[in-house]
């Protein structure tokens, strides 16, 4: 067994002991997930893939879609245009908070729901064109064609009043400039894309590799876009745990309510992790613990040894 695989197996074994947290009840499909599932995957800049545990278990990507759709809008429109409609400040609030910047009406950042709905709305085209571009881009990040879970999307839609309310609020505040229903529909679909840990590791590695997918060699977004996305992930990706996350782990990440996590150590590796139990902030407990251990074992903290 190679060094990375054996380290990853030890990290997995350690974090698997943790049984804290609760499986999300946000959707019935998430509530039904086996709480013991636990997968880890690491992808190097050379495109080597390392796995531990349930790395092939499928789950919906949920909020981990947000940085990659942000990347798409940055690539299409440029930073200045995107920042007119969505901010880049950590919110210090829950992911679905109803709070907009005084004066501009902008949501705090693209990693919370309100900001992600704006980012999705900024993707050029009508509803189906937006969706096509989003699915194509996230698939290019993952290096394979991603499929949507229709049942999850239907329940997102049926129970999506809070996200719809956010969209309408932002339309009245002027930060959402497209049709509100189109924006949330596209957002529900992107949250319902099915991935596994390897996909999330490849996606993170692509960001950390200057926008070039290390497995396919495809330049998915320009290097500057990857740099901008990683920066916003570093400050805002873990919701109101973003500060302590940077302190303890020290590289950009994004969590999702299904229990998934993607984390990118620039020029080093991408991490994908999944285990359904969440802490009170909505971050998956075992994946956070595993990322912390990985960072320590491989000295990945960005401020290490300066
Ligand atoms: N689909 C979820 C929502 O809109 C995503 C939230 C999350 O993953 N934190 O609320």
Automatic annotation (TrEMBL):
EC number of the protein: 3.5.1.2
The keyword Chaperone belongs to this UniProt entry's keyword annotation: no
Molecular-function GO terms, alphabetical: glutaminase activity
Highest taxon of source: Bacteria
Catalyzed reactions: L-glutamine + H2O = L-glutamate + NH4(+)
Binding site for substrate: 63, 113, 156, 163, 187, 239
GO biological process, one term: L-glutamine catabolic process
Keyword hit for Hydrolase: yes
Keywords on record: Acetylation, Hydrolase
Complexes and interactors: Homotetramer.
Similarity remark: Belongs to the glutaminase family.
Protein name: Glutaminase
Name of the gene: glsA
């Amino acid at each position: 067994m190679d060094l990375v695989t054996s380290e990853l197996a030890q990290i997995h074994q350690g974090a698997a002991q943790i049984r804290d947290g609760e499986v999300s009840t946000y959707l019935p499909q998430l509530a039904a997930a086996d709480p013991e599932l636990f997968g880890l995957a690491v992808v190097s800049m050379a495109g080597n893939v390392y796995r531990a545990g349930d790395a092939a278990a499928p789950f919906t990507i949920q909020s981990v879609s947000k940085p990659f759709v942000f990347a798409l809008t940055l690539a299409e429109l440029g930073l200045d245009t995107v920042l007119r409609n969505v901010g880049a400040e950590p919110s210090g609030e829950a992911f679905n908070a109803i709070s907009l910047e005084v004066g501009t009406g902008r949501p705090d950042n693209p990693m919370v729901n309100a900001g992600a709905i704006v980012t999705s709305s900024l993707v050029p085209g009508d509803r189906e064109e937006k969706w096509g571009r989003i699915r194509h881009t996230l698939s290019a990040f993952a290096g394979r064609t991603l499929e949507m879970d229709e049942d999850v999307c239907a329940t997102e839609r049926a129970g999506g009043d809070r996200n719809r309310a956010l969209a309408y609020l932002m339309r009245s505040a002027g930060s959402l400039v497209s049709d509100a229903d189109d924006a949330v529909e596209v957002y529900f679909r992107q949250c319902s894309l099915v991935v596994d840990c390897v996909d999330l590791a490849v996606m993170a590695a692509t960001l950390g590799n200057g926008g070039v997918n290390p497995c396919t060699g495809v330049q998915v977004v320009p290097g500057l876009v990857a740099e901008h996305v990683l920066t916003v992930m570093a400050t805002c990706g873990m919701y109101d745990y973003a500060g302590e996350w940077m302190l303890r782990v020290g590289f950009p990440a994004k969590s999702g309510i299904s229990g998934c996590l993607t984390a990118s150590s620039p020029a080093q590796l991408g991490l994908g992790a999944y285990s359904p139990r969440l802490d009170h902030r909505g971050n998956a407990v075992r994946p956070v613990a595993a990322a912390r251990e990985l960072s320590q074992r491989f000295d990945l903290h960005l401020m290490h040894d300066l």
